[in-house]
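HOLO CASE FILE
Compound: flavin-adenine dinucleotide
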Amino acid sequence: MSERDVVIAGGGMAGISLALALAKRLPAHCRITLVEGFALPPAVATAPDYHPSFDARSTALSYSSERIYRSLGLWPLLQRWLSPIETIHVSSRGHFGSTLLRAADYGWPALGHVVENAWLGQALLHALRAEGRVELLNPARVVAAQPTREGVALTLEGEAPHSLHAALLVVADGADSGLRERLGVAATEKSYRQHALICNVGTAEAHAGCAFERFTDEGPLALLPLLATVGVPHRSALVWTLPPERALHLLECPEDEFLAALQQRFGYRLGRLQQAGARHAYPLTLRHCDEQVRAGIAVMGNAAHALHPVAGQGFNLALRDIWALCEVLAAGMAKGQSPGALAVLQQYQARQRSDQRRTIEFSDRLPALFMHNDPMLALARDLALSGLDWVAPLKRAFVAHAAGLEALETAHE
Ligand SMILES: Cc1cc2nc3c(=O)[nH]c(=O)nc-3n(C[C@H](O)[C@H](O)[C@H](O)COP(=O)(O)OP(=O)(O)OC[C@H]3O[C@@H](n4cnc5c(N)ncnc54)[C@H](O)[C@@H]3O)c2cc1C
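Model generated. Tokens follow.
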């Protein structure tokens, strides 16, 4: 059976980022393979090529992600697709509290950067092909994984050898991970009984680098600044959390009705909402695996934790996990340990446990706090929002958490 040191099952944004990070950090003799089921777009493309993973969504990359991509030498490649977030306007519909977080107040050029998933995916794929070190099996799927004494025996389907043996299998096949289930790795699930409706919106006024986070009694609504495109000079990416029936209605209704409903909820901070792109809806579930490592196996990305998108933390957390895994594997291999050694993988899990716990709690509590009907709680929330403007350290802590810096700095200590 053909031997590999690391096989990554799943070439979504997490799988490709991990492959690039491993290629950079692991010794040259290490054989790294990435297996992706969906046929990836060709090497050169002039328009985003949509993919189930690199779909019509956008991602807000935090400062921690910027630092990781910079360390990997990928930031300059992404730069032309990034729209900087210079301010974040947080408000609550029907309540008096609102706050403005400004990058300049912290001496930062930006609080984060928004990138369309289609472009992020394409740039990562381009980097992977240019790097040349990672073996890409595509389209191919890992359909079975059997633990052995030295790793995992894999059965593949598609454009690939029928079987491989890996010292380490990384399960990065997304939130509905079939491999996680086949391996019997348990995931805790909590349905939010809400859908996230996403689409790109053309507005009359420029966003001026402002991201809007608006909490409403139906759920939070975010509009993130996007770069201009041909014929649409002012664009923002909408993530609108709604009860499922309302989300499905707004997904199908005529564009005029959709824009009127959004305008009524969001107001006129970006002037008249003029145009809506393709709409998509995602049911929202919090999923988290307590057991993310076994001898020869690590579960990463959405397969390990899928979060509420309100705080834009899911992929940023996945990147910090990736960074930590690479550091631990590189240190272990330098001491002659196998990448699949349980002791090495346990170090990774121990290192990321508190970052994952804090980030999951932050993403989970935020929407619940803002949807509460208790008037005393609403008052406390309004004061807390206004308080962010009054109390600089509190605001600083909120921004540092959202930027993922706290976790990254702890990891580097
Ligand atoms: C509405 C919304 C907005 C979001 N906004 C943000 C944000 O602003 N910031 C942020 O940090 N995060 C955000 N997230 C989270 C982010 O989108 C995810 O963290 C990210 O997409 C994780 O990707 P992944 O690679 O783990 O999984 P996926 O994207 O699901 O990729 C899994 C891949 O595995 C492949 N695959 C499946 N099975 C197999 C198999 N057996 N063999 C081989 N390949 C296989 C699939 O084809 C797929 O390409 C958001 C999520 C949602 C729903």
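CASE NOTES: The domain at 2-189+285-412 is CATH 3.50.50.60 (FAD/NAD(P)-binding domain). The pocket of flavin-adenine dinucleotide is lined by residues 9-15, 35-38, 52-53, 57, 59-60, 141-142, 172-175, 178-179, 196, 198, 239, 282, 301-302, 309, 312-316, 318 (CB under 6 Å).
CLOSED: yes
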